[in-house]
Structures are given as structure tokens and as C-alpha cells.
Design brief:
heterodimer; A: 542 residues; alpha/beta; Rossmann fold; 3 domains; six-stranded parallel β-sheet; B: 161 residues; alpha+beta; Alpha-Beta Plaits; five-stranded antiparallel β-sheet; 9 strands
Chain lengths: 542, 161
């Protein structure tokens, strides 16, 4: 077998079923080997960055490691944003890059770039394979590293001569053995008991749940723990859809773009429990003010997250699903009478908030509520970055089974459309909706071709205000004096774009027609595009 | 505050790059760094001096531990380790000053490695502070070149990392 065949065989042994890629000269041998492996579905993207986002969407829906393969040089550098996006959101991914022949490394030849060096700051690990004999071990380690502990992207750089190198009787390792890598799973028993004593003693506890809950598959454990102990739950942006919007314990999303009820819950709590949340600036602006006032329990699989942004009173390192199960065994407690009901009243007020109508154009909040009522319970909602995201977080009602995806950590514009392709590849039956703005749509709409080629059914909603709305909003606040460089002049007619890709499209220009247009759009048999015209002054504070 | 970290790592290409890259991107400042292979040829030992408070040090330790090739990390307690650094120093030395330089060298235990009609090269292994002091003593003779290895450290007593 040659190196490329070993690589493909190794992918099969890792139960890979789907690959997102973009062809290139230095991965022709891998393409040749993939051709002989029809059981591995291959999706050709339109730019390498999106192969990363598709692998991300795939991984988040399937719980498996997402895989992408691109060529050396510009293929690899284009993928960098996809890798960084996955890193910030802790998404399990294996990225394979072609490389120039190993005997020419370092000569700056055509399409050569030091990609392992370039991704070091935002990958969990990387390999430059210099001998094809190492490939079985490297691939096994890469999948193990990507998917265990705190998940993340791992890159394997394979020079083209290594892909062609013949290996006789390759060795397939049974297990992975890396002496410097031993992620914790169970929470320390003493810390669990200390945490439980603190929880049982607290009168106004709040549990703040983040994206780590999804990654650990701890959704059920979270709900059980919160329900049994009547602990109100707030989520970070990455934790949205952990609980349905109308769940009695769900107090909403925290942070600078979060809901007043959720932020009030944090301010009034006498105990904060962070579960699979990084306590980053967008979620908690001044973590130290909590630390000085109330105890903090912080559970995370990555010990480096504990004490990084907030000093925890009781740190618990481990898999948050195991930790929550361990805590469940400790007993049952009840917070102060009126604590939950008070927050629920605030929550109700948030959900009933009537968004400001601007006159001319659609009111995003009103539209998103109507959309949420119409989406099937199992829908995957992929939101992009900008006002569209903030509005979606705030107004879109999510049901039991709804899954919300966004690029919460890196905030990568153009994430939503390719992520939705990944979702569909993982779960073809799942209803999938993209919500983006006219800025982010123009970053990713070449992937409409991928959607068409794969015959996927994805419903794409584009909020169109002809402006980079959230940046515009920032520029109109102190210390800035007004918008600059944010008008999307020259944008194409998106309905013509949709038609060019053979996709039906709809346009909604006012609140009055929203119900009828939404019904037509959502009942369309295939992929379709809905343009939602929004007044440029429309703000996330409306 | 200066702190010393001992780090055992896989003896592989690229690991030093990962370690130093981690320092720069987390905005931690390296004061000195020394690397060498251990008695086990598959393991290298890196000794890093950082100028930081305790919070930063804890974060450095944790981030280092996250690197897959890092096997062990320990912050050395200030009073519980032997720290040594090696210095080679070349100074101007004429027939007039040679004797005085040699006398100072003898007092501090420095060795004369090279001698020319106009210069002397001395070698001293000691604590960082004593090397600093020796260097200051040599300054009046006009230092031509200095090379220092950075600190290496082992904990005192029978324990090991």
C-alpha cells in the first residue's frame, strides 16, 4: 500500500463516512485512493475555508470527528480560518493537508507553506508526516486527540512523496499511547462533595451552561440536575438550545447581547455554577466582580479554562456529563422560595418584549418569532455573525429538539451556510435553516453550488439591510462618530443569484405579509432563499 | 517576580517552537530558556525563567500541560532547587590588567579558557545572581563578548520531576 492508501484505510478504520475537500496538485494521490473507497462520501466545496466549516457542522450534529482534506499552500492557508473557528468552539476535527515533497521542504517551492507552524496557535495538535509508515499511528492519534478531553482540530500535513511511498506490511496500532496526554473524565470526589455542600447551602443558585454541555453529550444530565434541584439555568451563546425557550428553568442567554433576565439572575445569585463554559468576555464582562462576592463552581474538562477568566472557588476538572451525574448522586436540594419564580417572571417579560417597529421593512424580532412557531421541532438553526445572530439568539423560539449552531468563539462571518451543509451531510433528514445577513451571505454564497450538487434541502434566510449592521451600530456609539466603510454598495440581486443556482427564492419587505411568505418559503420542496428586508437603522437594542 | 519552570518534553522536532510560541501568544515573557536531552534520549528537559505573578505562572503551567508533547511541568519552589547557569565572557586584557582579571577570576572560581596578548576568555558556572556580579566586575576591563546558557535547575533532595 502507498501512503495515500494507508491514509484512506486509516480513515475507514476511524469510521469516517464523510469528507469535505478541495482538490489540488499535492493531494492527487489521496484523491486516487479515495476513488477506490466509494463508502467515503466526498463533498467538493467552493473554497477551502468552508470545508472546515462543513466539517464543523458535521461534527457538531453527528458527535463524530469532522474531516476535511485540502491541498498545500493556498489550500492550506484558506483552511486556516476554518481550523481557528473549530478551535475556538472546541469542535472535533481532523484536517488533512497536502504538502510539497518532503525532500523539497523549506525551499519555498510552488504552493509550499509551513502549515503546521501556521496553525500552532489555534490547533490542538499537528503532525508533519515524513514517513508513510507512521500514517496509521498518526491518524489514530489525531482522531483520539481531536475527540477526547477538550475536543479540537488536529492537522495532518502529508507531503506528496509520502503519499506515494510504498509501505510493506504496515503496522496498525490497537490503542493510542501518548504519555503527555491524559484528559480527566471523572470529577475529583472531594471536589464533588465540596461543590455539593456549597450548592445545598446556597439559596439563589444559578447554573450557567455553555457549549461544553453539547460536546460532552451532557444535555440530559444538565436538565435532570437542574430540574431535580430547581436550579435556574442561563446559557452562553454556545449553550443556546440546550433547553427549549419555554422550559421553566430556562432564564435565557447571558452576556453583552444576552437577555436582561439572564443577566439579572447572575447579578442576584448567591452561587454561580459554570458548566462547560469558558466565561469569556462576551458572556461575562467582569468576572472578578462575581468572584469577590459569591462562590463560583467551575466545571470544565480543560484545567486551563479554570482560573483563566474567573478564579473559581471550587474547580472541578473532568467530563461535565460525568460531573453532573456525580453531583446527581449527592442528593436533592431546594433553593429559596420565590427565587425561581421571580426569575421566571423576568423571563416572561423578556419573551413578551415587543421589538420596536421601524416603519419600512420587516421587524426582525417579530419575524423570528413567527419563524420559530413554524419550524419543526427537530430543526437545526445555523446563525451567522452580526445583527442576524443577536436577533436570532434573542427572538427565535427554540423547541425541544431544536439545535442552534453558530461560530460563538471566533465569530466567523460566513459560517452559517457551510455549517448547514455539514449538518445536512451528517443528518440528511433534519430540517435545516440558515439565518445570515447580506454581508455574511456574500462571504459564503458560492456554496449554493455545493448545496445544489449535493441536492440538499436547506432553507436560507438573508436579512438584507444593505449594510454591515452590527459594525454600523458600533460605529454610531461612543467614541466613534458615525458609519464608515459598512455600506454594502454593489451587492447583487440575491433572487437572481438564487435563480442562477436553480433555487427558488422569496422576498419579504414588510411585516404584514410575513406569515404568508414564511409559509410558502418553508413549504417549498427544495432548498430556497428568503430575503428579509430590514431597515438599516434597525438595531439589536430595538 | 522571577519564577523557574522545569518542563519534560518529547525529544522531537518542533516542540521548542510550540513551547516558545505558547509564551508569545499568551503574552508571557521568557527571561531565559535552556534545553537539553535527559538521561532518557526520548525526553528533553526545558528550564524556563519567567517574570510573572502567581496567576500568570499557573496559567503558563496549565497551557504547557495542554501541549501534547509536554510530559511534565513543575514550577520550582524558589528555595528548593539548585539553579546554575554557565557564562563564557571575553574581556580586553593587556599585560597591565591580566593579573588583576586573573585574581578576580580565582576569587569567584572562574576558569581561564583562552588567552591572547590582548584578551582573556573566562568560564564561570554559578547562580544567575553571581554571574551578574562577576559580569559587573569585568565591565571596567571592557567586555568584548558574553554568552550565557540560561538557567538550568534541579530540585534539591532525592525527589525527581
Amino acid at each position: 500500500m502507498n501512503g495515500a492508501e494507508l491514509l484512506v484505510e486509516a480513515l475507514k478504520r476511524e469510521h469516517v463516512t464523510h469528507i469535505f475537500g478541495y482538490a489540488g496538485a499535492t493531494i492527487c494521490a489521496i484523491a486516487e485512493a479515495l476513488k477506490a473507497a466509494p463508502e467515503l462520501a466526498y463533498t467538493l466545496v467552493r473554497t477551502e475555508q468552508n470545508a472546515g466549516h462543513m466539517a464543523s457542522g458535521y461534527a457538531r450534529m453527528s458527535g463524530e470527528v469532522g474531516v476535511c482534506i485540502v491541498t498545500s499552500g493556498p489550500g492550506a492557508t484558506n483552511l486556516i480560518t476554518g481550523i481557528a473557528t473549530a478551535y475556538m468552539d472546541s469542535i472535533p476535527m481532523v484536517a488533512i493537508t497536502g504538502q510539497v515533497p518532503s525532500y523539497l521542504l523549506g525551499r519555498d517551492i510552488f504552493q509550499e507553506v509551513d502549515i503546521t507552524g501556521a496553525v500552532a496557535p489555534f490547533s490542538k495538535h499537528s503532525y508533519l508526516v515524513k514517513n508513510a509508515r507512521d500514517l496509521p499511528r498518526v491518524v489514530k492519534e489525531a482522531f483520539y486527540l481531536a475527540s477526547t478531553g477538550r475536543p479540537g482540530p488536529v492537522l495532518i500535513d502529508v507531503p506528496s512523496d509520502v503519499q506515494k511511498q510504498e509501505v510493506e506490511s504496515p503496522q496498525w496500532p490497537e490503542a493510542v499511547s501518548i504519555r503527555g496526554y491524559r484528559p480527566s473524565v471523572q470529577g475529583n470526589g472531594m471536589q464533588i462533595r465540596r461543590a455539593w455542600e456549597t450548592i445545598a447551602r446556597s439559596r439563589r443558585p444559578v447554573l450557567c451552561a455553555g457549549g461544553g454541555i453539547f460536546l460532552a453529550g451532557a444535555e440530559a444530565a444538565l436538565e435532570e440536575f437542574a430540574t431535580r434541584n430547581s436550579i435556574p439555568v442561563v446559557t452562553t451563546m454556545m449553550g443556546l438550545s440546550l433547553l427549549p425557550t419555554d422550559h421553566p428553568l430556562n432564564i435565557g442567554m447571558v452576556g453583552s447581547h444576552g437577555s436582561p433576565a439572564a443577566n439579572r439572575a447572575l447579578a442576584q445569585a448567591d452561587l454561580l455554577i459554570f458548566a462547560g463554559a469558558r466565561v469569556a468576555d462576551r458572556a461575562i464582562c467582569e468576572p472578578d466582580q462575581f468572584r469577590s462576592r459569591i462562590p463560583i463552581i467551575h466545571m470544565d474538562v480543560d484545567p486551563a479554562e479554570i482560573g483563566k477568566n474567573v478564579q473559581a472557588t471550587i474547580p472541578i476538572v473532568g467530563d461535565v456529563r460525568h460531573i453532573l451525574r456525580q453531583l446527581l448522586e449527592q442528593g436533592v436540594c431546594q433553593p429559596e422560595e420565590g427565587w425561581l419564580s421571580g426569575l421566571q417572571a423576568l423571563r416572561r417579560a423578556d419573551l413578551d418584549h415587543a421589538p420596536r417597529e421601524r416603519g419600512g421593512g420587516v421587524t426582525p424580532g417579530r419575524f423570528l418569532r413567527l419563524l420559530g412557531e413554524r419550524l419543526p421541532a427537530d430543526t437545526a438553526v445555523c446563525a451567522d455573525v452580526g445583527q442576524n445572530l443577536i436577533w436570532t439568539c434573542r427572538y427565535l423560539p427554540m423547541q425541544e429538539g431544536t439545535r442552534f449552531l453558530t461560530s460563538g468563539g471566533l465569530g466567523t462571518m460566513g459560517y452559517s451556510l457551510p455549517a448547514a451543509v455539514g449538518v445536512k451531510a451528517a443528518q440528511p433528514e433534519r430540517n435545516t435553516v440558515v439565518i445570515c445577513g447580506d454581508g455574511s451571505f456574500q462571504m459564503s454564497f458560492p456554496e449554493l453550488a455545493t448545496i445544489r450538487a449535493e441536492q440538499m434541502n436547506i432553507k436560507i434566510i438573508v436579512f438584507q439591510n444593505q449594510v454591515l449592521g452590527l459594525v454600523r451600530q458600533y460605529q454610531t456609539q461612543q467614541p466613534y462618530t458615525g458609519p464608515y466603510g459598512v455600506d454594502l454598495d454593489g451587492s447583487p440581486d440575491f433572487q437572481t443569484i438564487a435563480a442562477a443556482y436553480g433555487m427558488d427564492s422569496y422576498c419579504l419587505g414588510s411585516d404584514e405579509k410575513a406569515e404568508a411568505v414564511l409559509d410558502a418559503f418553508l413549504s417549498n420542496a427544495g432548498s430556497s432563499l428568503l430575503i428579509v428586508r430590514v431597515h438599516p437603522e434597525c438595531s439589536t437594542n430595538d | 517576580m522571577q519564577q523557574t519552570l522545569s518542563v519534560l518534553v518529547e525529544n522531537q522536532a518542533g516542540i521548542l517552537n510550540r513551547v516558545t510560541g505558547l509564551f508569545s501568544r499568551r503574552a508571557f515573557n521568557i527571561e531565559s530558556l535552556a534545553v537539553g536531552v535527559t538521561d532518557d534520549p526520548s525526553i528533553s528537559r526545558i528550564t524556563i525563567r519567567v517574570d510573572s505573578g502567581n496567576n500568570v505562572l499557573e496559567q503558563v503551567e496549565k497551557q504547557l500541560n495542554k501541549l501534547v508533547e509536554v510530559i511534565k511541568v513543575r514550577a520550582q519552589e524558589e528555595t528548593r532547587y539548585i539553579g546554575r547557569e554557565l557564562m563564557l565572557i571575553k574581556v580586553n586584557a593587556s599585560t597591565k590588567t591580566r593579573g588583576e582579571i586573573a585574581a578576580i577570576a580565582e576569587i569567584v572560581g572562574a576558569k581561564v579558557d583562552d588567552l591572547t596578548p590582548t584578551s582573556m576568555t573566562l568560564e564561570l558556572s554559578d547562580t544567575t545572581e553571581r554571574l551578574d556580579a562577576f559580569q559587573a566586575m569585568m565591565r571596567p576591563f571592557s567586555i568584548l563578548e558574553v554568552a550565557r546558557t540560561g538557567l538550568i535547575a534541579l530540585q534539591t533532595g532525592g525527589g525527581k520531576l
